[in-house]
Amino acid sequence: MAERVEIMLTEEEVDSRIREIGEQISKDYAGRMVHLVCVLKGGSFFMTELAKRITVPVSLDFMSVSSYGGSTKSSGVVRIVKDLDEPLEGKDVLVVEDIVDSGRTLSYLLELLRDRGPASVKLCTLLDKPERRVVDVHVDYTGFEIPDEFVVGYGLDYDQRYRNLPYIGVVRFD
Ligand code: IMP
Ligand code: MG
């Protein structure tokens, strides 16, 4: 199917917002260390840029979950594809996600991480589509609230493509 990508948020807008969030996180975690947990693959671009803007000590870990179902919808059934390498006990965990849509993936994931005894768990997402929420999820840091459109770029894919775009775009099918 033919599709094109229309820019929603430019590279400059995304980069400057990531700097702001990095500053805020650095203030909020002053005197502590923050353990970033990246949700692969989508969260990886955001996480590396964000980590560069955080001035308190940072450690990183990665996990991969997959929701069964079609390419543009989350089914709510979540499977751990790759678990974290490190235990979370006593750590100040900050989960870094690309987007919160229905909230199903995150609500499952946050519960699972909280069970591992961290000192705290917070959530940072580059994008949030509040209109689409089905499960209530508390987001601590949001890059941008966006309307209900299917977006790509900055880690987000359509059928595994477009993750490498340095901006956020909307996929148009026409
Ligand atoms: P949720 O469980 O419905 O909140 O879905 C979260 C996951 O669905 C995200 O981590 C993305 O992988 C994917 N997703 C949701 N909306 C979009 C979108 O607009 N573009 C690309 N992926 C999306
Ligand atoms: Mg994701």
Low-pLDDT stretches are none
Q: Tell me, what's the shape? A: globular
Helix content: 10-25%
Order of strands in the sheet with the most strands? 4-3-2-5-6-7
CATH topology: Rossmann fold
Q: How many angstroms separate the termini?
A: 9 Å
The CATH class:
Alpha Beta
Decide which structural class fits the backbone.
alpha/beta
Separate helix tally: 3
Mean pLDDT rating: 93
Hetero groups bound? inosinic acid, magnesium ion
Structure, described:
The chain is of the alpha/beta class and 174 residues long. It has a single domain (12-67, 75-150), classed as Rossmann fold (3-Layer(aba) Sandwich). It is built from three helices and nine strands, in the order βαβαβββαββββ. It has helices spanning 11-28, 43-52, 104-114; strands at residues 3-9, 34-40, 58-67, 78-82, 92-100, 120-128, 141-145, 151-152, 168-173. Helix 1 (11-28) packs across helix 2. The longest helix has 18 residues, at 11-28. The termini are close together. The mean pLDDT is 93. It binds inosinic acid (IMP) and magnesium ion. Inosinic acid binds next to strand 5, helix 3 and strand 8.
